Amino acid sequence: MKLLLLFLLIVNTLFATNESFSNSKKELRKIYRDHQRTIYCDCKYNYKNKKNMIDKKSCGYIPRNKYTKKGKLNIRANRIEFEHVVPAENFGRQFSCCWRNGDAQCVTSKGKHYKGRKCCTKVNKQYRIMQADMHNLFPAIGELNADRKNYKYDFELPTQGQFGQCEFNVLFKQRRARVREEIRGVIARDYLYFHKRYGMKLSKQEFKKYQAWNKEYPPSEWEVERNNRIAKVQGNKNSFIEDF
Predict the structure, then answer these.
(1) How does DSSP classify residue 206?
(2) What are the start-end ranges of the H helices in 102-160?
(3) CA 209 to CA 68: how far, in whole Å?
(4) pLDDT 10s digits, 39-84
(5) Complete DSSP assignment for 94-109
């Protein structure tokens, strides 16, 4: 019994400091095995259908761009990507030596400096842990993930039309995204979790907004189940879901 407890402690410690974004995505595919729904549009999807993962009819999703600027088929409109709801660039800003200016270790063989996610992933363990945190990763249509970029979430509710019947809007000039009410609580508890666990800064306005959303939109059964499943793999829970 003591050996079993020791083994579980070691396993939990290892997962609690998971640094692999790729491994996190693999585990999340298992976690979502019986709940394959996208976060923004609530579309059904099938991860095994590599050519077209999205069941567009299930949610009325119509791609904003059927083709890319180069005239090629927009494949991101047909696939699932795991979206960082708290954008990697946003929490990466606290690692300014890597994100803004590059790092001495982030140099190509030709002497060119690089920065951003590529640099932070290479040189900063804490960044890798945050990037791989499964509590912050949600299945989303690739096109929506690309369009949302690192934009903040807006106070206003979305309308249909930009992506068919999907209630999701990207305001490119304002650098904002609008999401349906059903996921406001999910988003709020994710941001509050990152604020508490990693000390990620939130403005007073954002903090008040997410506190309000957290209270107004309680966790669903799936959100609680997802939290429990991630804890079994990663070794920790989102306390804003657990203690609701």
Answers:
(1) H
(2) 117-123, 125-132, 142-148
(3) 35
(4) 999 999 999 998 999 999 999 999 999 999 999 999 999 999 999 9
(5) T-HHHHTS--TT-B-T
Instruction: Tell me the two tokens of residue 80.
Output: 């699932």
Pairing state between β 152-153 and 176-179: parallel
Structure confidence at residue 124 (pLDDT): 85
CA dist., res. 29 & res. 36, Å (int): 9
Tally Cβ neighbours within 10 Å of residue 15. Answer: 19
Cα of first residue to Cα of last residue in the chain, in angstroms, is 33
Ranges of the chain with pLDDT below 50? 1-15
Strands 137-141 and 152-153: unpaired
Q: In 10 A of CB 209, how many CB atoms?
A: 20
The pTM (predicted TM-score) of the whole model is 0.89
Q: Residue 188, exposed/middle/buried by CB under 10 A (0-12, 13-18, 19+)?
A: buried
Give whole-number Cα distances, 44 to 10, 60, 139, in Å. Answer: 36, 11, 10
pLDDT of 17: 65
Residue among 215, 195, 90 at smallest CA distance from 152? 90
CA dihedral 78, 147, 28, 41 (to 10 degrees): -70
Give Cα 83 to chain centroid, integer Å.
3
Query: Residue with structure tokens 């003591």?
Result: 2
